[in-house]
Task: structure prediction
Amino acid sequence: MGAASAILLVLITILLPPLGVYAVAGCGADLLVNICLTILGYFPGHLHAFYLEYVYYDRREQAKHGIPSSSPAPGVYSDRVQSGGYGYGTIVQPTH
Result:
């Protein structure tokens, strides 16, 4: 399920970068930055969106293995992306 959702997210981001950012980061500063970058040029919007998705999935994998993130990723404003989706709301932490 994880790989299928990642592939779907990449396909959505290729078509419309702000939609991919919204799916990962929600409605916030990252979405606003991505909309502005996409308006200024389609390529910068893609770079930003794929960077956010990379940070999100990288932090998610680190959290699964119990490795805490050492420092916040530069240029990422969403706590959801910084934590890889863990520790946000009522998400149950994995136990190993």
